[in-house]
């Protein structure tokens, strides 16, 4: 089995078990988290992803943001680096609208859809950034190849060190008695990329604790849904989170992007 097929199989193992019947979709898109993260990053950028993208923008250049959400990866570069224009690509139109609100004052373009389906329409950019997307990409080879082909200077990919849903594994065991997958990890991603000739620079870093939701109750509800539990289980989920040491004043988005992060950087070929 190749590393690329292993990657695909590991992602497929996250399907909800047949014995579990979710009362509502567990695949939650936490828009509030993306909005709050973008606003924090725009106000005061942190992390290796920002630094490594900025390094490639000492000369004026354009940015293509894949999985842009509200702009946490690309918009902090505006005004701090020589960004002349930004293209944002995402599957969620509400988040793209939020991106546009935050991009006022810089030339920008919005593309609604998936990468690499819209690679031709997106065109080339000096720097291509892609934040917290790869664990949603079973077919990694064409995805990564299109990133490389789109970038004139540099590709900058941010990802959790381990599939972020693994943060919920103790709760799956507690509520369902089910052992969920332990990966994939960034090491699996790197092995898959190596099979297509990509050997990136790897920078590990940690996002500091932040209130990713305004209200602890919202975080509880998202975790409940991700655990495929009914609404009346919210109290039990809250107790479980508190017992895990979750600070209700600093609600994390468990299962989304994690705090242990890795930034991967490689040259573009455009």
Automatic annotation (TrEMBL):
Family annotation (InterPro entries): Methyltransf_25 (IPR041698), SAM-dependent_MTases_sf (IPR029063)
Record-linked Pfam families: Methyltransf_25 (PF13649)
GO biological process annotation, one example: methylation
SUPFAM superfamilies, sorted: S-adenosyl-L-methionine-dependent methyltransferases (SSF53335)
Keyword Transferase (UniProt): yes
This protein's UniProt keywords: Methyltransferase, Transferase
Gene3D superfamilies from the UniProt entry: Vaccinia Virus protein VP39
Keyword Methyltransferase: yes
Residues of the Methyltransferase domain: 63-144
One Gene Ontology molecular-function label: methyltransferase activity
This protein's name: Methyltransferase family protein
Organism encoding this protein: Amycolatopsis echigonensis
């Amino acid at each position: 089995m190749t590393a690329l097929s292993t990657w695909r199989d590991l992602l497929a193992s996250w399907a909800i078990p047949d014995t579990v019947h979710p009362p509502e979709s567990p695949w939650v898109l936490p828009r509030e988290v993306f909005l709050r993260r973008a606003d924090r990053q725009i106000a005061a950028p942190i992390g290796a992803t920002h630094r490594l993208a900025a390094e490639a923008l000492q000369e004026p250049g354009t940015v293509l943001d894949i999985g842009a959400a509200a702009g946490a990866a690309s918009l902090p570069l505006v005004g701090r680096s020589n960004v002349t224009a930004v293209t944002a690509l995402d599957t969620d139109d509400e988040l793209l609208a939020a991106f546009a609100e935050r991009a006022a004052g810089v030339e920008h373009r919005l593309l609604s859809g998936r990468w690499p389906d819209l690679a031709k329409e997106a065109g080339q950019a000096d720097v291509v950034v892609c934040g917290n997307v790869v664990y949603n990409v079973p077919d990694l080879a064409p995805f990564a190849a299109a990133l490389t082909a789109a970038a004139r200077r540099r590709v900058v990919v941010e990802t959790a060190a381990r599939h972020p849903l693994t943060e919920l594994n103790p709760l799956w065991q507690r509520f369902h008695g089910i052992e969920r997958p332990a990966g994939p990890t960034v090491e699996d991603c790197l092995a898959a990329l190596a099979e297509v000739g990509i050997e990136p620079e790897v920078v590990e870093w940690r996002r500091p604790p932040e209130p990713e939701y305004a209200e602890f109750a919202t975080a509880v509800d998202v975790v409940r849904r991700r655990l495929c539990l009914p609404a009346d289980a919210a109290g039990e989920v809250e107790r479980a989170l508190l017992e895990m040491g979750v600070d209700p004043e600093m609600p994390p988005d468990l299962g989304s992007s994690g705090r242990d992060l890795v930034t991967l950087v490689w040259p573009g070929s455009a």
